[in-house]
Specification:
434 Repressor (Amino-terminal Domain), globular, 3% strand, single chain, 260 residues, mainly alpha
């Protein structure tokens, strides 16, 4: 995924470089210009920051942290590293959640581990969990410990036991955590297309000309559909863990839509 565990100890310039290289690996034509645009800073500033010729401003640092989905601790350390910011104060976006809560929401495999606990044949073993989810044993171990600390999970007789029936987010969740979560689910969907046969997945889409005033009502329909599908697919004998994702997004630019 985009933000790795190594970010917990890396300086912010290294984080910027690692993220750029990761995106470049996925898309060979990806450029520094595109990267700077997505971060919301100029290409010149980005190049000079990564070359250690200048620091990010506090405003740009918060912008970069939000767009990369950096956790509160990493964001605070980044601000501390910037010259002149000895006692950084995070804005409300990053004060809402602590580090554990942020990571549970933003890293997809926490939800997957909670649902692995529903399977009869599972092990509370980080190596087993890592193999089943395609993550490292270190990521699996850290996630299990985090879920235990938060009271969502406990281990008994080498089995994972959920202590909560379900988890849901609210509108108070920082956008950085949700953006990271949504991006990770999209990458997982792409990986599934390449890896899994058509009998194990289902992908469909439709492009339409819509009345955008109905979007709020459409979101409510999506939520009802999601909950009904969950109730239909879950049973007394689950044997796998799936993620349901529904995407609805504009394919025309905002300026084009304003000219209607």
């Amino acid at each position: 995924m985009e933000i790795s565990l190594t970010h917990s100890s890396a300086d912010y310039r290294t984080i910027l470089q690692q993220e750029y290289l990761a995106r470049k690996e996925r898309n060979k034509s990806y450029s520094l210009r595109a990267y700077s645009k997505q971060l919301g800073i100029s290409k010149t500033a980005l190049v000079e920051v990564m070359a250690q010729k200048r620091n990010l401003s506090s405003k740009n640092a918060l912008k970069v942290a939000e767009r990369l989905g950096l956790s509160p601790d990493v964001t605070k350390r980044m601000l501390t590293d910037i010259r002149g910011l000895r006692s950084p104060n995070l804005d409300s976006t990053y004060q809402t959640l602590d580090e554990d809560s942020f990571n549970v929401i933003s890293e997809w495999y926490h939800y997957a581990i909670l649902n692995l606990a529903k399977l009869k044949r599972h092990k509370a073993d980080p190596y087993w969990v890592g193999r089943r989810l395609g993550i490292t044993s270190l990521e699996a171990r850290s996630a299990i410990l985090r879920l235990e600390r938060m009271g969502f999970l406990e281990i008994r007789n080498n089995k994972l036991h959920r202590k909560v029936s379900s988890l849901s987010t609210t509108e108070a969740i920082p956008s950085a955590a949700l953006r990271k979560c949504h991006k990770q689910n999209l990458f997982l969907a792409i990986s599934s297309i390449e890896r899994d046969g058509v009998d194990d997945r289902y992908n469909t889409s439709i492009t339409m000309a819509i009345d955008s005033s109905r979007l709020i009502a459409a979101r409510k329909l999506f939520l009802r559909f999601r909950d009904r599908m969950c109730a239909f697919l879950e049973s007394e004998n689950p044997d796998s863990v799936y993620t349901l994702g529904v995407q609805l997004f504009p394919v025309v630019r905002k300026e084009d839509r304003k000219r209607r």
